[in-house]
Design a protein that fits this description.
Layout lengths: L5 H8 L4 H11 L3 H14 L9 H8 L2 H4 L6 H10 L11 E3 L6 H13 L12 E5 L5 H9 L5 E6 L5 E9 L10 E4 L4 H7 L3 E2 L14 H5 L54
Parallel strand pairs: 1-2, 2-3, 4-6
Antiparallel strand pairs: 3-4, 4-5
Helix pairs in contact: 1-3, 6-7
Length: 276
């Protein structure tokens, strides 16, 4: 599969320079309609779901090698590590935890392995919750987009995993519990409960008030189960209506598995976004 070039990214974003592109990525984190339009453009160009979409671009144009030593793990190594840790969960119940996540290469490789482990017709994102910590400001948008476009459930902490000092934390949530749908972006509140759960000793910034997932309850994030029961969403507790999915499912591009064309219906949205 052909690698995406900077021309591909810039054309989709409507920009001509690297700084403009990074500003675009940060802006659309909190603009779901523009974000999903960008994702669908990437999918039409052709992406490898098992690899970090932005790694090559970031290493060439965005990495601060001298200051922050931002050199990322090659794909062959991330794939090997994901195979070595298959089926493993850490003591906090995360399917995988990367304390220095970068743009997300290791997490994506583990996600790809986890996806292969799931039985046909029984693949639910709610069965896996990932954790990614990253210190560098310029990396966070790439990391968020890599998780959201894949429909993952993940906690992303923008901070120092050693000192426990953080700026923000994000809950990436797939409210429809469907691998063929994009995830929502939510900013986690800076409460004593979430600080304890995430191991945060101090917040450097005020919390951004932003939530896309309807009826997301903080308690369900704190009290998540290590083995979420099938067909029950880990954050909302709601049962999923999964019967018949194998017959009529839409991909990210809006195409039915059977080949028919479909559009994202207004039923999916509540104020522009889906509700859990």
């Amino acid at each position: 599969m052909q690698k995406l070039t900077y021309e591909d990214f810039y054309k989709l974003a409507g920009v001509s320079q690297h700084k403009q592109f990074e500003n675009f990525l940060m802006d659309i984190v909190f603009q779901p309609e523009r974000r999903e339009k960008f994702y669908r453009g990437l999918i039409e160009l052709g992406i490898n779901w098992e690899e970090d979409i932005f790694r090559d671009y970031f290493e060439l144009y965005g990495a601060e090698r001298k200051t922050f030593k931002q050199d990322f793990t090659p794909h062959d190594v991330t794939e090997l590590l994901s195979r070595l840790t298959r089926r493993a969960k850490d003591r906090n119940g995360y399917a995988y935890y990367d304390p220095t996540a970068g743009t997300g290469g290791l997490l994506i490789a583990k996600w790809a392995q986890d996806s292969l482990e799931m039985p046909l017709g029984g693949a639910y994102p709610s069965q896996y919750l990932y954790r990614a910590d990253e210190l560098a400001d310029n990396v966070i948008p790439y990391l968020i987009h890599n998780m959201v476009i894949r429909g993952m459930n993940a906690v992303i902490v923008h901070g120092n995993s050693l000192s426990g000092v953080a700026k923000q934390a994000y809950l990436i949530c797939n409210p429809e519990d469907d691998f063929l749908k994009f995830s929502d972006v939510n900013v986690i509140e800076h409460t004593p409960a979430t600080s304890e759960e995430l191991g945060i000793v101090r917040w450097e910034e005020e919390a951004i008030e932003y939530k896309e997932t309807g009826n997301m309850m903080q308690a369900h994030f704190i009290e998540r189960t290590k083995e979420p029961p099938p067909r029950r969403h880990p954050f909302t507790g709601a049962h999923n209506q999964t019967e018949g999915r194998g017959v009529h499912r839409k991909s990210h591009s809006g195409k039915d598995v059977s080949g028919g064309e479909h559009h994202y219906s207004s039923e999916r949205y509540e104020g522009g976004r889906s509700a859990c």
